[in-house]
Structures are given as C-alpha cells and as structure tokens.
UniProtKB/TrEMBL annotation:
The lineage of its organism: Eukaryota, Fungi, Dikarya, Ascomycota, Saccharomycotina. This is Phosphomevalonate kinase. SUPFAM superfamilies: Ribosomal protein S5 domain 2-like. NCBIfam families: Pmev_kin_ERG8. Keywords: ATP-binding, Kinase, Lipid biosynthesis, Lipid metabolism, Nucleotide-binding, Steroid biosynthesis, Steroid metabolism, Transferase.
Amino acid sequence: MFSAPGKAFVAGGYLVLDPQYKAFVIALSSRMYAHAHVDKEAGEYTEVCVKSPQFAEGEWCYKIDLSRPDLTQETHGRHNPFVKSTIDILFLYLTPEQNKRITITIFSDPEYHSQKDSIPKTSKTGLKTFYYHSQPIYKVAKTGLGSSAGLVVCLTTALLSCFSDNFDVKNEITLTRIHNLAQVAHCHAQGKIGSGFDVAAATFGSIVYRRFDPQLVNRVLESGRNEDLVQLVDNTDWKIQHTKCCLPPGIKLLMGDIVGGSETPKLVSKVLEWRKKEPERSLEVWTQLNSYNMRLVESLEKLQDFSKSQPETYKLSLRSLVEGNKSGFSDVVSSIQGIRQYMKIMTLESGAEIEPYQQTELLDYCMSLNGVLGGVVPGAGGYDAVCLLVAQGAIPEVVERTKHLSVTWLNLHEQETGICEEDVSSFIDFL
C-alpha cells in the first residue's frame, strides 16, 4: 500500500509556468492512498478495477488487450479521465506479456474534499478516519490540495508495484520513473501540459521546483508509441529541479478553507493574456516577484541552519515570536510582504482575482496577530484558500481570534515526505 501527500503552493504561482523560474511547494499531512491486490488467475485480458469506496458510484473497471494496450476498454463505471489516462500510459510503457487481474482501492484523507453530506468511519485501532460521501466524486467539492495529482501518483505507484518483484519507492530510479510516468498521465488526462508542480510534490514531498520543457511530454502524447514513452521516462534528462526544502522547526503551515472557489484556468488565461499584451511590464513584475520568492526560500533555509547551529538561541527567538516580537524572522516577514505586493499588482493589472479584496482583509488581519510571519493566497490565488506561516505556540490563539471570520482552519501540517509505503494493517478495516 502506498500514499502520496497533498500540497500547498506557497511561492511561485504563475511563474512556475516558465522553466526559468522556481517555485516553493509544501507537502501536507493529508494523503491519498492506493492498495493493490493481484489475483492469481486471469483470463484472456488484463483487467484493472479501481475502487474508491468513499464515494457513490466509485468504481472504474477496464480490460486491456496486451497486444493493443492503446485500446483499453471501460467495462463499467462512469468515465474518470485521471484513472483511465494513468492506466493507458502505464500499459503503453510496460507492455507486459502476462495477463493479470488487478484491483486497486483508493482512499483519501478528509481534508481533500468538503465533508458535507458525509459519514466518518474510523478503524478499530482509531488510527485512521475516512469520510464516506453520498454523492459521486465529481459532485463533491474539492479543497484544492491536489487530489488529481495525488490520485495519479498513487495509482501509478500501485500499478508499477504489480509488475515488479523488487519494488522500492525509496530507490531514486524508481521514484523518478513514478514521477515521469505520472506527469505524462496527468497531462494526458487534463488534455494540456501543466507545470507539473503538484505531481512533483506528490512524488518528492516539500521541494523547490522548476518545471520541465512542455515539448518533452507533447511529443510523446502526439506519437503514442511505446519506444518514445520508454525513452522519455527512462533515458531523458527532464532538466527539472526538485530540491528538498522544508519549514524550520517550530514554524507551521496553517491552511484555511474559505469555502469560496475559483476557476484556476480562467485566472491563468487572464495573466497570460496580460503578459502577452504588456511584455515589458509583466517581465518587470515577474522579476521582482521571483526575487521575493527566492528570498523566502533562502530565509527559511537560513532559519533551518540557525536552528541546528544555535538551538537554544533559536528557541528563544521562537518564544519571542509567539509573544509578538517578529524581529528574529524579519527576512521571512518582508519576503512574504513582497510576494503579496506583486501578486496584488498582478491582480490589478491583469484583472485576474489572484488576491481579491476579501482575501487581503483576512490576510492583513492575520498578519497583525502574535506569532504570524505572514500569509498568502496559495497557488493561482482566488477564493479557494489562504495559508499562513505561524509559530507553533501561537496557533491556538490565531484560531481563537479568527473565529468570527469566514475561514475554516484545516487539520493539516507539513509532512515533508512524498510517495511512501504504508503499513496495510492500519487500513485493513476499510478494505
């Protein structure tokens, strides 16, 4: 059984579309899980059935003729483009010789979806709780933590494990193979080449990320040939960057659901149109925004080093932060303020509601509270969520003092690890 984390895209929104810029993505404790079971007997086709018991009508089954893996047949269940594309890409890559009957069961932690009209079920050990919904998955509101990327990465990992005797997700070659296949499958499902930051975070965890050249994936999707896919996945340098980067000790991510919702493609199209019309001005804004993004990453790395080299002094700084003295963390504070300043400029000049007025009011209020280093509207912005960087000791007060506002703080924290193997005994009550 394998799991992949959700994500909070803290710095690098929009810039991540361009390979010359980097982004900072935090992996979250909410995870997507995939359990694989292979039957000993199989018929004249390979059969793959993907089940998601937390949702009504949550079953998608397929037959694959191994001589023609490009002709995958859906046998029953509603169409799920992410499941179908993952299966298509994996069997195009693997070209196995022996038929198998495979069942993959998918679970997702509560924070991925709205919990409205759902029933919690807890394991006998009390270690895991999943919410079961009365509606099909496409009718249940998402919270923007990267559920489709988590699904594709988990499903890719689980399927690959069914065709390998020595499968180890800690192995760098295996991890890269999972990432590359999942990127191709996710792009195929979306019908476009995205930046890939969400798939990268689901695979590798909290990272500073720089994207791949879209033409790499485009060429393979256009050709649809096994040899091209194998060459891309196993023998091509994608020139991406996924450097480990995490929050320093005692600084936590606080993620707030606004229960609003935004259409990311519309926001992105407005920003790209602005870039096209105002190339010089947009380059100026993006250059400044990038400098603040990288300053934030550098500031967090320096605090990480400080916490190791002078642990006692660092602890004193944290205590002061909880009491409202932010001077020991001024670089982080000013970096986040700079990021917001240029995101607001993009909001005003492009017409895309990246940091709408209501979000500005909320973030400004939160910034005035003790222990809060700053906050942003993550990713592409809009009305989906906000995230704050907060001293751990100040979180109860922040939650208490924002009770009157329209924000629900999610039960989440940073979990640096990407894809990992799980102990199936913790999930046995759900299988």
